[in-house]
Amino acid sequence: MENEKKKIVLSCIQPTSVPTIGNYLGALKNWKYMSEDYDCYYAIADLHAITVRQEPAKLRKQSMEMYALLLAVGLDPEKNVVFVQSHVPEHSQLSWILNCYTQFGEASRMTQFKEKSLKHADNINVGLFDYPVLMAADILLYQADFVPIGADQKQHLELARNIAERFNQVYTPTFVVPEPFFGKVGARVMSLQDPTKKMSKSDPNPKASVSMLDTPDMIAKKIKSAVTDSEAKVYYGEGKDGINNLMSIYSACTGLDFAQIEKDFDGKGYGDFKAAVAEAVIECIKPIQDEYSHLIADKKYLEDCTRLGKEKASYAAQKTLRKVMKKVGFWQV
Ligand code: ATP
Ligand code: MG
User: Fold this and answer.
1) Using N-to-C axis directions, what is the helix angle for 216-224 and 270-295, rounded to 10°?
2) Which of 74, 141, 251, 272 has a Cα-to-Cα distance from 314 of 20 to 30 A?
3) Whose alpha carbon is nearest atom 19 of ligand 1?
């Protein structure tokens, strides 16, 4: 119905590097589908990005490139709210308040903090620890009903729900308690070099992931050198993490299910399978790459869209923050 209020969706991506096909198949592809049925807020999470040391000029450039890529995957800046997190200061403000409604113990259980602490042992900063609380602020600020996340963010969303419920209970209902929204396919893409770990755009090993802007040649090479096993038989099974991952990617790109893939590659080796996976990935992302190359050449258009996103996001964010500050008991004049 035309006047019916649409459900609200929020999701973020960090401008830490060019997105991978993991980001695309696990998140961005679903963002586009969701943008048709929901009121969507999509943010470039630059505040999150500095929990790991970033080079300033690179961060700025990557934020703009990420913005162009979001438009290239099909998000409409007029219909959706596509914005940069640091342009809306309410994220930091609400995050501080929510810190005071988060227990140290529950935050200490977050596995991403443990993983990232190991990776960045020389810079285990408080922001890295506090990341999930900022993420809770991102979500709760827009009263999001759904958060389309990859499996890697499940624990963080659970924390956001707990914080929302706690705040609602201490005061009166203030926040919508968000639900996770998992995409149908490719929910978790693994590293090509260590298929027991998820593919990450900030992985320093370039062979571990396929970026959304890789050339066909690079894609073919990376998939060819993906770690598999010595059995040389294409099927989904235990102890076959590498092949399972390639099958998931292939399935997400072609729409074929595992049974069909197993049948199609019966009697064929990994060489043939990898070539087919590479071709499917190249085909799948080509239209996005074409659109991206147009957009990135038009800085003025990108900046105009970003400003529009900032205005729309600020309107909703201010409304929630005002409510929260009042409930907490801040003297408002
Ligand atoms: P970083 O290494 O900087 O954390 P990332 O690849 O994990 O980068 P994020 O910006 O943290 O990307 O996440 C963006 C979105 O992509 C999130 O919704 C996240 O759940 C999803 N995502 C990240 N990695 C994967 C993956 N390997 N498979 C599926 N979805 C993923
Ligand atoms: Mg991540």
Assistant:
1) 150
2) 74
3) 150
Q: Is 7 a catalytic residue?
A: no
Taking residue 177's Cβ as centre, other Cβ atoms within 10 Å add up to: 16
The verdict on whether 116 is a catalytic residue reads yes
CA distance to 25, 116, 201, per residue, from 292 (Å): 17, 30, 18
The catalytic residue among 6, 119, 197, 198 is 198
Ligand 1 site residues (CB inside 6 A) read: 11, 13-14, 16, 20, 22-23, 26-27, 149-150, 152-153, 188-189, 198-202
Q: Kindly give, in sequence order, each residue whose CB lies less than 8 Å from that of residue 148, ignoring residues fewer than 6 positions away.
A: 9, 11, 27, 30, 31, 34, 180, 181, 182, 183
Please write the tens of the pLDDT for every residue from 247-279: 999 999 999 999 999 999 999 999 999 999 999
SS3 159: helix
240 is catalytic: no
Residues in the chain: 333
Contact assessment for residue 189 and residue 25, using Cβ atoms and an 8 Å cutoff: yes
Q: Which of 201, 222, 240, 312 is catalytic?
A: 201
Which residue in the block uniquely carries the two structure tokens 């203030």? 174
Is the Cβ–Cβ distance between 87 and 305 less than 8 Å?
Answer: no
What is the value of pTM for the model shown? 0.92
